[in-house]
Amino acid sequence: MLLPVYCLSQQPIVDSLQQLLQFHPAADTFKLHLLNELAFACQQTDPVRGLSYADEAITLAKKLDRRQDLATASSNKGSNYLAQGEDSLALAMYDQALQIHQADNNQRGIARTSFNMGIVHFNRSQYYQAQEYYGQALGIFHKLQDHQREALVKNSIGITWMCLSDYPKALENLLAALRLQESAGNKAAIANTQTNIGIVYKNLKNYSKALSLHQQALATYRETGNMQGMATSLGNIGTTYDEMSDHRHALEAYQQSLALYQKLGNKHGIASSLTNLGIVYNSLANHAAAWQQLSEARKLYQQLDDKNGTLVALHEMGKTISLAPAQVLAQYNIDPSGRYRYSKTLFNNSLQLAQAIGAADKQMTAWQSLYELHEQHHRYDSALYAYEQYIALRDSIFNKEKDQAILKQEMRFEFEKKEAILKAEQDKKDMLAQAAIQRQKMIHNITIAGILLLLAAAVYMFFLYKKKRDAIEKKKEADQRALVAETEMKLLRLQMNPHFLFNSLNSISHYLHNHDVAMADEYLSKFARVVRLVLEHSEYKMVTLAQDTEVLDLYLQLESLRLNHNFTYKIYIAPGIDPEETMIPPFLLLPLVENSIWHGIASLKKGGHIAVRIEQQQQMLLCTVEDNGIGFEAGGGTATNQQRSFGMKITSTRVDLINKTNNTAIGLRLVPVNRGARVDITLPLEMKL
Fold first, then answer.
1. How many separate domains does the chain show?
2. pLDDT in tens, 551-571
3. CATH number for position 98
4. Helix 67-83 and helix 29-42, axial crossing angle in degrees, nearest 10
5. Is a pLDDT exceeding 80 seen at residue 326?
6. Which domain holds residue 42?
7. What is the DSSP letter of 587?
8. Which one in 66, 368, 384, 436 has a CA-CA gap of 20 to 30 Å to 80?
9. Dist. CA 511–CA 520, nearest whole Å
10. Given a cut of 50, is residue 130 above it in pLDDT?
């Protein structure tokens, strides 16, 4: 049982994404991204639900005309089909995704989809076709320096060489993958590769080493909640116990593995577990149970077009017929007198499939069984021929040259590991030695320079020292002022947050009090988005114009809802300005818009309007906030006018701080209008690096 793919425990991620989806009913790109993330996360825990999310994402991506998101959704649908063992359906979805990636020249997408298509061909025992897809993916990931996925592909290449019975090449690729994964500290990936290396050692009859690796992997999968990995590890543990003739422990492991695969709906895993149960039942002389399990497994393998699984089931069914008592054979309408003919036919069919897919180890096993069958029935000529074929294949797989190659790979892995540790220690010593040399050289030069300067001009040294001391003091003062300015700027940013939070919570409470759950839900969704963006953007001195106007638009939507739509608004960005590339200080316009709402048009029963305009004037941006409210003069000395002035004072102070801190030239001015108020902010045009 092999494990070519891995993932971390996804259930906490699924729960979080589902909560976000419930609070975001709008059919927009954000919902599309949530659906794609859910489809991806479900493939290892609930592939049936994953298919549902993928279908919904495909429909929405087509509606929004989002090609790359459509490719992602198609690929996710393929992965969920793959988790259920539906290889043909998975391959069709991957092909759709690959066509989109190739048309858009998306190299990373091409590599990921090619890798997934390789897995499908691997499941069908089409090993050389799988290697072609893996090779394409590996070349792109290596070029992109994506070492995590490079390790993943090397892991799958190693598995494929294992199925072709080339254990030195298998171990070479698996150990290379393990080196990359250990460097990244990826526990799930390490467990996956340990599993596959354990299978190599099991095939080489090193059972203690194989069992240790499988048990380490199982512990990691249990810790991360990866049911797919747990099922695979239990199957491998059962196989190792079975080959150690510990059939009781093997049976327990296989039954646990089968239960997990049935829960996941993984047909490949179910068929593999049934085959393993049939093998161990034969070992326990329960041939009736063995025949039942193997017959079910054979049907599943043929449905899945899995030649490797089919030939194993056929071989074990041949063994069952050769071993079962006559009364057991009669239960399944098999004439005991034809035992030799039935067994030989099944062994030959298994051999032909093994030859078709190039599985040398399976051919060897089939010839061994044919040799034993012919000898048991005194067909000595046929037995001799089968024995010669068996020995030839055994010697080609297990020979001194290959043992040395495997030992060489193990020694190389350990050597490179130790060499990396020694190199790190030596680099540290070299850095310390170099620092000591530089320190001694600096001390020597300073000493000579000091003596010469003292001899040449003692007075000059005094003035030089004084000048240096003054410069240091000035730098300290400047640093202190910058620190104070930065601190004050953060405080100014926070002044609007309690005000806004209080108003928003009051609005939500109002809707709930009036039993308007739909409006409360809509308001809460937008409010959560604003809070999230504010928290994200507040860490940056500059954000894109698109990001800043998104917060502004959401804020205006919330206030419009709160005030029962008694005002309209428009955010206009001049055509020559690219919002995704233009940078501005975050939340510069938000206090002005808040002033316009609260102290300009809030008192109007209806007909209020706020206009926000962003225009370019040569190398400057002109940002204007204008409303048709009561204006600055109408309030006279009232509290409203004083509050509006206080809001302007906050913005003015912040502009001054930004100018001092960043050495910019941002301007702020009030512009007289016939009705309402208008504020202009001019700032240098800055583009995203």
1. 2
2. 999 989 988 888 888 899 999
3. 1.25.40.10
4. 20
5. yes
6. 11-105
7. T
8. 66
9. 5
10. yes
Domain boundary among 83, 105, 127: 105
What are the structure tokens assigned to 477, written together? 């003062």
CB atoms within 10 A of CB 509: 11
| Rounded CA separation 684/686 (Å) | 6
* Domain assignment of residue 417, yes or no: no
Residues in a beta bridge with 668: 681
Instruction: Give the other-Cβ count within 10 Å of 248's Cβ.
Output: 9
Contact call for residues 516 and 504 (beta carbons, < 8 A): no
Q: Is the dihedral of CA 164, 167, 169, 175 positive or negative?
A: positive
Alpha helix (H) residue ranges in 246-359: 247-264, 267-283, 287-304, 307-323, 326-331, 339-357
Which is nearest to 357 in space by CA: 118, 128, 91, 120?
128
> How many Cβ atoms are within 10 Å of 657's Cβ, its own excluded?
18
CB 340 within 8 A of CB 373: yes
Please report which helix (H) or strand (E) contains residue 189, including its range: helix 187-203
- Of 85, 119, 284, which Cα lies nearest the Cα of 192? 119
Nearest to 124 by CA among 354, 304, 362: 304
Last residue of a domain, one of 105, 124, 142: 105
pTM: 0.45
CA 347 to the chain's CA centroid:
44
Q: Using CA atoms, how far apart are residues 612 and 569, in angstroms rounded to an integer?
A: 8
Q: Which residues pair with 572 in a beta bridge?
A: 613
For CA atoms 520, 524, 527, 529, give the dihedral sign.
negative
Whether residue 540 lies inside any domain: the answer is yes
Question: CA 306, CA 77: separation in Å to the nearest integer?
Answer: 21
Q: Which of 93-107, 122-136, 401-415 has the lowest mean pLDDT?
A: 401-415
Per residue in 618-669, pLDDT tens?
A: 889 999 999 998 876 654 444 445 545 556 777 787 788 777 766 777 889 8
| Residue reference for tokens 């640093």 | 479
Tell me the average pLDDT of the chain. 83
Pair of tokens at residue 399: 């020979």
Secondary structure (3-state) at 568: strand
DSSP structure class, residue 517? H
143: burial class by Cβ within 10 Å (0-12, 13-18, 19+)?
A: exposed
In three-state secondary structure terms, 680 is strand
Which residues on adjacent β-strands are paired with residue 570? 611
Tell me, yes or no, whether 318 lies in a domain.
Answer: no
Residue 73 phi, psi (nearest 5): -65, -40
37 in a domain, yes or no?
yes
Q: Give CA–CA dist 257/260, Å, rounded.
A: 5
The answer to whether residue 406 scores a pLDDT higher than 70 is: no
